[in-house]
Every structure is written in C-alpha cells, then in structure tokens.
Amino acid sequence: GKMEGVVEGGGCCLAVRPESIILSATDGPLPGTVSRATYYGAKVEYEVMLGDQPIIVEVYNPQLTERFAEGDQVHMTLIDRCVRVLA
Length: 87
Description:
mainly beta
C-alpha cells in the first residue's frame, strides 16, 4: 500500500484483521501472552498481550491448529499481504 509519511526507523500504525495473525508456540517475531481464549466452535478468539497492548486474534478451524490457554506464551506473525500501514 501507500507509505506516504512513513520513514524508516520512525513510528507508524498498522491495521491488521484478527484472522490475519498466525499464532505459534515457538515461531514468530512478536512474543506475547494469551490473556483470554474463547472457543466458539468454528473459531477460537484469543486476546494476546503484546506488552501492555491487547491484540485480538481469531483462529478458524481450531481443530487443525495448535490450541492455547490463558497464560501461554505465544509468538505472532502478521500475514504480509493483509497488513495496512497507516501513517
């Protein structure tokens, strides 16, 4: 997308849909802690604390992926093509 107003090494804001974040027990650049896990059948909604910022992550077809519980340490990866940069 457009990167006007964004400078290398500077701050910016990212917009990412909750289903565009991949959770893993070991792999990913953004470490966090699961503060809530809610099972809805077709999906699990996690609240992951990234520092003091809560991040909502939705995992569809939870039978096919790792499951996490409150207090678990996880790593998040953002799907590149699903991230929007807001300057």
